[in-house]
Amino acid sequence: MAMVFIMIMIDISKYDKLLEDLKAMLFSERKSRKLNRIEPNFYKNIHSLFVELTEEKDRVVSSDITEYMEITKLLDEVRKNFKAFFQVRFEKIGKYSVYDEIEEYLYNMSPEEKNIMKELNAQMKGYYDDFTGITRQTEEIPEMPEEENIVEEPPEKNITEPEIEEAPVPEEMVLVRIIKDQPPIAQPDRDYYLHRNDILYISGSFAKMLSSHGVCSYIEKGKKL
């Protein structure tokens, strides 16, 4: 026996009508400074709408992708418009909740909104009483202890004594005679410009170098020049 599967199609037009009604309510609420009158069962109907659309979307996800996409789009539209309506309406409710007398504003509200309004009003009165000191108890707010002015001593620096370098022992100076002209010769103490028959004192190491090249001859101390 062949099995026949009967698909129950959702009536999208019914939900489209609810979406249009929600858009109209949002438009009207935005235009009015006061709260518009709302049906007592408005939020219950909204909740049922979300539940039904979500169930339908889950039911057709594996059988009809076209219908699934239509329901998803419709659900997103309903959610977007309801959030905007909720924000506009509860902005007004929040403003009224700070007033001492709120009875005149309850008339146009749903039962859920009335309960929220009364809760907010009681909280606002409590905050006001706290700020004005009527019910505030000093022990409820512990005073912060005064901070002591503690002067922190800077950390000790490890002062290292500078190393004392031993002064170099001055090299012995010797008297020499230059035998032949020389180009400029650089030495640690200065540059030397040596010419034939120059007689001068130079360091022992410098004299040794010049003597090895036949450039100078030593003159003994006390010897007549």
TrEMBL record:
It comes from the Archaea. This is GINS subunit domain-containing protein. It comes from Ferroplasma acidarmanus Fer1. The lineage of its organism: Archaea, Methanobacteriati, Thermoplasmatota, Thermoplasmata, Thermoplasmatales.
